[in-house]
Amino acid sequence: MAKVFVITGPSGVGKGTLIRALLDRLPRLAVSVSATTRDPRPGEVDGVAYHFLSRTEFDRRVAEGAFVEWAEYSGNRYGTLRSELDSRIERGIPVVLEIEVQGARQVREKMPEAVQVFIAPPSRETLRTRLVGRGTDTAEQVARRLQTADAELAAQREFTYVVINDRLEEAIVELVAIVERELAGRV
After folding, report:
1. Which whole-number Å values give the CA distances from 99 to 21, 51, 125, 184, 186, in the listed order?
2. What is the spatial distance between Cα 154 and Cα 56, in angstroms, rounded to a whole number?
3. What is the pTM of this model?
4. Which residues are CB-contacts of 176 (< 8 A; sequence separation ≥ 6)?
5. pLDDT tens digit string along 81-140?
């Protein structure tokens, strides 16, 4: 059975950057493309960045049981389609899920063998600076994301591993080491 790696943390903490570096260094991993009801950001392509769904379509798929996990985050819904995960696991490909804390809890309940990694910022102020600096959210959206982040940061002790994303290269090395140990069965 292929391993599933759940990587979570607050919005703006650098999950995407760390996962891209992880995939560069361990190309045998595959990332599961999540579905969302949020609007695409500039440059995001449907089916690559996310599967962009209307709220109606998302709700229909929830009712059908098409998601392994799903959650509402900052006014939008996000989820992992069961088909995205199953197709890779059946082929023995280790899968990385970049999901929110609510979704990580659902995966933990349904798949306790999944490896859970929480990415944390060095401080709340650093997180705020990163959210503002990426320029993709309004001031109101940043405030909502920070409010959500407070609850998520309190939950980090629920996770098997916590990686502090302060110095990017050090965080990458730590994340790669965790994944390599787990793939090799050396926990």
Report:
1. 17, 14, 22, 24, 25
2. 32
3. 0.84
4. 21, 22, 25, 26
5. 989 898 899 999 999 999 888 889 999 998 999 999 999 999 888 888 888 888 787 888
